[in-house]
What does this fold into?
Amino acid sequence: MNSAPSISSAPPPPPAPPAASPVSGSAVRPGDRIFLGLSRGSGIALLVIMAAIAAFLTVRSVIAVSGDHANFLTYFEWTASGTEPKFGIAVLAFGTVVSSVIAMAVAVPVAVGIALFISHYAPRKLASLLGYVVDLLAAVPSIIYGLWGALFLVPHLTGLYSWLDDYLGWTGIFSYADEAPRSLFTVGILLAIMILPIVTSVSREVFLQAPKMHEEAALALGATRWEVIRMSVLPFGRSGVISASMLGLGRALGETMAVATVLSPSFLINTSLLDGGGGTFAQNIASKFSEADEFGQDALIASGLVLFVITLLVNGAARLIIARRKEYSGANA
Amino acid sequence: MAKRIDVSGLSAYYGSHRAIDDISMTVEPRSVTAFIGPSGCGKSTFLRTLNRMHEVTPGGRVEGKVMLDDENLYGSGVDPVAVRRTVGMVFQRPNPFPTMSIFDNVAAGLRLNGTVKKKSELNDVVEKSLKGANLWNEVKDRLNKPGSGLSGGQQQRLCIARAIAVEPQVLLMDEPCSALDPISTLAIEDLIGELKERFTIVIVTHNMQQAARVSDRTAFFNLAAVGQPGKLVEIDDTERIFSNPSVQATEDYISGRFG
Amino acid sequence: MSNTVTARRPVADSAPLPVSLKQPRLPRWAPAGLAAAAAAVGCGIGLAAGLESRIQWGLIAALLFVLGTFLLAAAVEGTRQAKDRLATSLVWICFLLAVVPLASLIWETVARGIKVVDGYFLSHSMGTLPDAMAGGGIYHALVGTLQQVGLAALIAAPIGLLTAIYLVEYGRGKLAKAVTFFVDVMTGIPSIVAGLFVLSVWILILGFGPSGFAGAMALAILMMPVVVRSTEEMLKLVPNELREASLALGVPKWRTILKVVLPTSVGGIATGVMLAIARITGETAPVLLLVWGAKTINSNPFEGAQQSLPLYVFQQWQQGSDASYDRAWGAALVLIAFVMILNLVARGIARWKAPKTGR
It folds into this structure.
């Protein structure tokens, strides 16, 4: 009974499909040829666009970096104009990584918690409603998070920050000089809130797919609800949670507007995360763009290329992890 | 160690739908009791009320009493987790934990309870359970391989080993052979014969020959019509049920006139 | 019994059982009671210590609740139950932690936006209005957003659709693998990078000025992979038997795709395209780089700077006056409403035209 699907699942490539050829002799129908051409052409167009993105960004970056009178990777300032332009991405790389790491550290555990709440704890009606709401929240545009972050979240964080300063200030990371907390830490929190819905949504999907029979197996052994989750849901969902987190990380790394509205940027690496200052790739592009001349725009493009490469690496890593964990997916049982 | 189960006036619901109605029966210790009946007659639902697994299903709820010796499973203050620990279960499809090795699968229940602390003691219990499930000789060289790499019949015996490792009083089996080939089925049936010396066993089966082969007593369930709740028609010694049942419907079902 | 191995033969003796099925349990109202108590104590501490931030009050209460539940359960019910309760309370806290900011976000936007949005706001542009003055509207931004998003969809939807058809119906071999891989890569492009790409080609190399069309190209790049992915998923749901039935009747493949495969999955595809549109509607960064923003109505997307809703929100926020904040919230409300309606309609279609496989 498997013979029938196998015919259609492996049709001979470009030449006419099996059913058509006997009827029309050896000629390929023009309709088929046009349609195949169109759809294949679209695929090729997509590849061309990707190649063009990589090529043009690289070309412009080379122009910029070769005109840079400082080390592009390690220099702290960004003066991409004048006769002797000096700019480097050290501060931007630091800020991007730190804010994204904070976002992940806050968002992933909470998202897993909410996903479990929806999939295994909440009453059924509430759960489906919540799932729906989370999906909707994932669609809220980032500029609105930015607006809310700047006008609502920032003023409400001062108390918390001076508190952190009181108790954890000695670490150096959490010292806080009473100014408006437009800092990398705030950016991290805002990014966490932003990626929460998408990470939750993907994790919830995975948790809901955890095979019922393994949960029942654990239950029948006398496992508590948490033990059931630990034995059968989390192992099954692990790779899904990782890919969800990477998806969120990708968004956090490239987020522009929410960072641009909340952060008060400066080209300094501040060891205290609560104090303002620092910057991220995307934010720097957005805020420097309007005053940049053509060379300045090239310099921004070069930093954009670095951001692009970083996000590519993150996505690639996610895919590798998932591929490696496939054997544990439990789908084979 | 096996205990007697005494059910009286038990009904189970899915939301507002009554799946089984007013069932009373006694299951003798150290014996095999088989549940037979047409599809949808509620025999699996009834089985799942015996270790409070029914209430895990959304909307699932139970009325009535299930006495395990002198304790009511549905009495106030009874912890369902403790019930399931005392009344083990084997499912229709073999369901070893896919991320765990064979050893860890068997040890899973023991680790939960934390009763067995020492590694050597754990090894002993795992070995004993696997021997008890007639699986030891086949897997002793690959205890650290994932359990999902075994054949279907071996997986089911692994699940039985996992269930008996925590030393339950009662072992419930929900069509344990329906997903297996005849040879694996035979191995499980032999195993059931050995296990009844230590446990009270209740088995749901679609296969009447199987019921006749393995069980001491047989209960026949039926339902008046689709959508009606399932009822217990009669329970008696297996021999009587298959030779001279007291209810006409039982005879009709057994002789293949319906179902 | 002795300790020798043989004496353990009856396995039951080696693993003592719980004597009774009844375990000491906390009453059913215990979690709710503890939560109330923790909240009260949290507020109490907050008031007494004069903590100005409500966030701190909440954190203290949450910590008390989690710890209290764990310790109480550990004392009464044992460690296993305590761990279970700990997990439950943490999951609840996570839920609350997330609900509070997200609810606040929606609430702030609606509450502050609703005061601004009216017929005038929707039908007028900023014109020459000074930034600090109240008044003005978003008409020019609405026009710009609709045109840019429309153009982007016109470019991206056909390419995305056809690419998905290629991957599912024809795609074998290296080309298909490469396309699949690069669609994945494209999904991860940060929106600002897409903007930079169009900037480098369209403006820096080809020498065009800013325009709605330039923005639309960047938005199209962001939209394409989303359309490909969702369409692919939907086409894969179409059972093979349907295709075979049609092919077996001698219908050519392209007609099979057009008349059998696409109609079967049209609901899901429409949903995917609409969700992708909703996503790019809120994109700000590429628009900032390529369309620049304007105060007046420019209804020609191919010439000159235009405005768009998300960019309008950003620029009004940048002005930093009370009047411009109000306008930013108003535009944010309109934007959120637009995106939400698109989402709701799209999901409605998905439910209405659910693929005819399974339930």
Remarks:
- Confidence is low (pLDDT under 50) at residues 1-18 of chain C.
- Chain C has two domains: 25-113, 139-352.
- Chain C has 13 helices and no strands.
- Chain C touches chain A through 108 residues (CB under 8 Å).
